[in-house]
Design brief:
single chain; 7% helix; 14-stranded antiparallel beta barrel
C-alpha cells in the first residue's frame, strides 16, 4: 500500500508539471513529447523507442515498461520566423505598412510533458499521459503591411490521456486509452490597412473527448513493430468576435459566436530492429489527417446575429506526413547515445499558406543521450535543429482561401527551429531497473 501511495503522489506531481504553461509553443502540431524520442527524431516511437513517453503515440507500448515508472520532460523551443513583403504586394498595403521585415514573429516557449505507468499483473498495465499536442503563437509589429491578414495568433491545448495495455502473449500487445482535450484559440487582425486601425479579435475554447489505440508485434527476436492511433477530437469553440471598428455590415461591438472544429486524427507506425547487442536501428512514419480542417465558420449564437456566419477560418489544409530514421547505441551500462533525421511534408503550401502560420516542408536533425544516474533514476537530453526546404513564401493572391480581394500580399519567409529537451525517468522497483531491450 505504501508503495502504491508513493507512485500515486509522484504521478500527480508529474501531471501537475505537464499542465503548467502547457501550450506556449510555436507550431500548430507539437511533436516534442519525449526527450528520449527526440534524440532520434522520434523514429520508432510507436514501437516503444521513446521510453515511457511512447504511450503518447501508441498505448500498447506500456507493456515494455515493467513495474511502476514515471517520466517528466520539458522541451525548450527556440523558433525563428521572419516575413518580408515582396513584389506583388498591394501598393496600398506597402504605403501604410511599409516594406520592412516583420522581425521574429514567434516567441520562445517551454513544452512540458508527463507520464506514469503501473503494472497491475503479468499481462495488464495502466498509464497516464499529460501533454500539449497543439500550439501556436505568432505576433506581428504594429502597422505591419500584412495587418489585415494577421496581428496575433495563439492556440493553447491540454491533453489528459489515461490508457491501458494488455500483453496478449509474448509477441502481441494491445492498448487503448481515452483523451480529454482542452483547446483554446485567440486570433486577431486589423479591420483595415490604415495605420492605427482597430483590431477584430476572435476567441473561443472547449473540451472534447477522443481515444487512442495501438498494438505492438514482435515477429522475431530483436524486432518490434508498433502501430498507434490518436483519434480526431470534435471541439465546439464558444467565445466571441470583438470588432474594434465596423466590418462590412457589422458595427463595432462584441458578438457571441461558436465554431465547430475537428482536430485531426493521427496514425503512427514504428519499427525497432536490433543490429547488435548494444545497437538498435529505428524507423517511423506518421500520417496526420489535417485535410479535415476545411473552412470553419464562426456562427453567431445570440441576438440578431444568431445563426449567421460572422466570419470564417479557411484553413483548407492538406494531409501531413513525417518519416524518420534513427539509431541508439549503448556505450556502456550507464550511457546511451542517440541520433536521427526526419522529413516532414507540411499540410501547408503556397496555395493555402497565410501569415498566421507560414509553415512549409521541413528537415529534422536530432541528437541525444541518456545516462543512468542511479539504479532507479535516468536522465535524458536531446537537441533538434529544424530547417525549411522548398518554396515557403507567402502568396496571398487570387486562389488562396485567405485572400482579401484587391489587397494581395506576397512575402519572403525565413524560418527555423532549435529545440533542447531534458527528461527524467524514475523506476520504483527492481523490475523497472532493466533498460529497454535491444
Amino acid at each position: 500500500m505504501r508503495h502504491d501511495m508513493r507512485w500515486m503522489v509522484l504521478a500527480a506531481g508529474v501531471m501537475a508539471l505537464a499542465s503548467a504553461e502547457a501550450a506556449e509553443a510555436g507550431g500548430f502540431l507539437l511533436r516534442e513529447q519525449s526527450t528520449i524520442g527526440m534524440g532520434q527524431a522520434f523514429a520508432g516511437a510507436a514501437a516503444g523507442e521513446a521510453g515511457l513517453g511512447s504511450m503518447y503515440w501508441n498505448p500498447a507500448t506500456l507493456t515494455g515498461n515493467p513495474g511502476a515508472q514515471v517520466e517528466a520532460g520539458v522541451a525548450g523551443l527556440f523558433p525563428f520566423a521572419d516575413v518580408t513583403p515582396a513584389t506583388g504586394t498591394s501598393p496600398l498595403l506597402l504605403r501604410f505598412g511599409g516594406s520592412a521585415a516583420s522581425g521574429d514573429i514567434v516567441g520562445d516557449a517551454a513544452l512540458p510533458s508527463g507520464y506514469a505507468s503501473y503494472q497491475l499483473s503479468d499481462r495488464l498495465f495502466v498509464g497516464l499521459a499529460a501533454n500539449s499536442p497543439f500550439g501556436l503563437s505568432t505576433s506581428y509589429p504594429d502597422d505591419y503591411a500584412g495587418q489585415i491578414y494577421a496581428r496575433a495568433s495563439e492556440v493553447r491545448s491540454f491533453d489528459l490521456n489515461p490508457n491501458a495495455a494488455l500483453a496478449v502473449n509474448d509477441w502481441l500487445s494491445l492498448g487503448v486509452g481515452i483523451r480529454a482535450v482542452y483547446f483554446k484559440t485567440e486570433l486577431s487582425q486589423a479591420v483595415s490597412p490604415l495605420p492605427g486601425a482597430p483590431s477584430a479579435k476572435l476567441d473561443g475554447d472547449d473540451w472534447g473527448i477522443g481515444m487512442t489505440a495501438g498494438l505492438t508485434l514482435k515477429p522475431m527476436e530483436g524486432t518490434e513493430i508498433g502501430v498507434g492511433f490518436r483519434s480526431s477530437v470534435a471541439e465546439t469553440l464558444r467565445g466571441s468576435l470583438a470588432l474594434g471598428g465596423p466590418v462590412g455590415r457589422l458595427p463595432a461591438g462584441a458578438y457571441a459566436v461558436e465554431a465547430a472544429l475537428d482536430l485531426p486524427e493521427q496514425v503512427t507506425v514504428g519499427l525497432h530492429q536490433a543490429l547488435a547487442p548494444d545497437l538498435g536501428l529505428n524507423a517511423g512514419f506518421e500520417w496526420t489527417n489535417w485535410s479535415r480542417l476545411g473552412s470553419v465558420p464562426a456562427v453567431g449564437t445570440s441576438g440578431p446575429t444568431r445563426g449567421l456566419t460572422l466570419t470564417e477560418l479557411p484553413f483548407r489544409y492538406k494531409d501531413g506526413y513525417y518519416a524518420s530514421v534513427g539509431a541508439d547505441y549503448r556505450w556502456n551500462d550507464a550511457l546511451t547515445v542517440r541520433a536521427g533525421a526526419g522529413y516532414e511534408w507540411s499540410p501547408i503550401d503556397t496555395s493555402n499558406r497565410d501569415l498566421r502560420l507560414p509553415d512549409s516542408d521541413r528537415v529534422h536533425l536530432n541528437v541525444g543521450l541518456g545516462y543512468r544516474w542511479t539504479e532507479n533514476l535516468s536522465v535524458d537530453l536531446a537537441y533538434s535543429h529544424i530547417f525549411t526546404v522548398g518554396d515557403g513564401d507567402v502568396e496571398l493572391t487570387a486562389g488562396n482561401p485567405h485572400y482579401v480581394t484587391g489587397l494581395p500580399f506576397v512575402g519572403n519567409v525565413e524560418a527555423r527551429v532549435d529545440t533542447v529537451s531534458a527528461g527524467l525517468t524514475y523506476r520504483f522497483d527492481a523490475e523497472g531497473k532493466t533498460a529497454r531491450r535491444f
